[in-house]
Write a structure and sequence with these properties.
Rossmann fold; P-loop_NTPase; GTP binding; GIMA/IAN/Toc
Amino acid sequence: MLTYKFVLLCIITLVETHSNHLTDMEEIRVVIVGKTGAGKSSLANVLLNNSAFVTGIGSNSITEKAQSATAEVKFPGFIGNKRLVVVDTPGMFCTRRNNDEIAKVISRCVEMLIPGPHVFIYAISGSERFTDEDLKTFNQLKLRFGDDFTNHAIVVFTKIDPNEVSEFANSQTEELKNILAECNNSRTHINTKTPRDCLTTEVDSILKLIYETVQKNGGNHYNSFMFRQAEKRREDEKKREEEKLRMEREREFLKWKLQEAEAKRKEDEKKREEEEKKRHEESGSNRKTTDRWEEKRDGEKETEQLENAISMFVDRYSGRRDTG
């Protein structure tokens, strides 16, 4: 019985300490990330209840670099306001800049939110179909910030009509479902096209989700150590890829050299065969000439012998006539 009470007391103490720690937090730091056109700047303005960030229409990126703004915000369930610091980032797959440049800019938000952000909001446009670019954006962010990114991430579907939420949820792709699962299904939605005054419920839902994520992580933020670990893993991965490419190039070069050597061998072999054939033909021609010469010589010899025999016969015949 004593043991049970002791354990229960420990649990209550931990919960109270944890709760007090969160209650005492004066500042919550948030980074909004996503591809170009996801409505990140509009979402940031809605959360801060001001127009700190420039917004635009269409898929072109308005935000060129990471920018931050601060406002006192009332979080649901807590007395008084808390300081909410939001960093708006450039969109991935911007037509004017490559993703590597944008990813580096997004990485600097860790420095802007020293000692580190509590939550990453991954904004996805709910008015469009989930695309390969959305998936690549998420993977780029994981690569840039490491595995701890998903522990501090929530998903907010923007530009989505409340009446279409159910339909949108039922039409999710497997890739999107996997992303939500990686983010512990921490998701909500908001129609950033609607005036702020009409979005109290949606904003409260996002703020509640932000605070729940902070609570889940014990008030701990994503920090520079996590980022350095992610940087190291990324550098190691980059080196592995470079080594893989180098070995592939070497294999291709050796393959080309072998093919070149084989082609030269075949060419030399063909040349030898042609030379041997030529020598054989020349040798055969010489033999024929010799045979003809020998035949001619034999014929001349036979003719000479025949002439000598005739001459001897004539001489003998003439001698007999003279004697007679």
